[in-house]
Amino acid sequence: MSKAVAGLDGKLRCAWCATAPEFLSYHDTEWGFPVHEDVRLFEKLVLEGFQSGLSWRTILNKRENFRKAFHGFDFHRVARFTQKDVERLLKDEGIIRHRGKIEAAIHNAKCAREMVEREGSLAAFFWRYEPKAANLAKPQTLTTSAESIALSKDLKKLGWKFVGPTTMFALMQAMGLINDHVEDCVIRAQVAKVRKAHGKKS
């Protein structure tokens, strides 16, 4: 959806946030706001991976269960998970019990730990793929971009899993590498203000 709709408060917002009750708070307080904290970046990356083939509503409703199961997405702890932890998670009805995605999350935690050792932080790496303002398309009209394709390719070279171009574009939208709120959305200006305070490009 690339249009805005009026909420109960009369303010215009991205149409997708009106499709489920739990989306409003997520839209207004999280989606698109710049994220620089490594644990939050890792959480978003893991959850976007789990979303593959599913709806974001399913993931959002289970997010607190995911946080508990993955120790708050502390990737240093997750990187130490063993096969016993995989079996534990496969029995956890509060999360998505998909062996491939669970194993990928643990594997990516190890990759994240290595990246921090090499780059200083996850943020230092991911924010290199922030698109230039001139490359930005009309909000919510793309599912991939040159930058998400490049990010996906580079992560795969480093061994990361479940990091396809579409998943990485969703990550970039969610963590604020781009401000993809539609033009009339009341939150777009708030995101732009936060981005400006962080010296971002758009």
Could you write a compact summary of the structure shown?
This is DNA-3-methyladenine glycosylase I. This protein is 52% helix and 3% strand.
Describe what this molecule looks like in 3D.
It is a single chain. With 202 residues, this protein is mainly alpha-helical. It has a single domain, classed as Endonuclease III, domain 1 (Orthogonal Bundle). The chain is built from eleven helices and two strands, in the order ββααααααααααα. It has a two-stranded antiparallel sheet. β1 and β2 form a beta hairpin. α2 crosses α10. The protein starts with a strand and ends in a 5-residue tail after the last helix. Pfam families: Adenine_glyco. Keywords: Metal-binding, Zinc. InterPro entries: Adenine_glyco (IPR005019), DNA-3mA_glycosylase (IPR052891), DNA_glycosylase (IPR011257).
Topology record:
Blueprint: E1 4-6, E2 12-14, H1 23-29, H2 38-51, H3 56-61, H4 63-69, H5 75-78, H6 83-90, H7 99-119, H8 122-126, H9 146-157, H10 165-174, H11 186-197
Antiparallel strand pairs: 1-2
Helix pairs in contact: 2-7, 2-10, 9-10
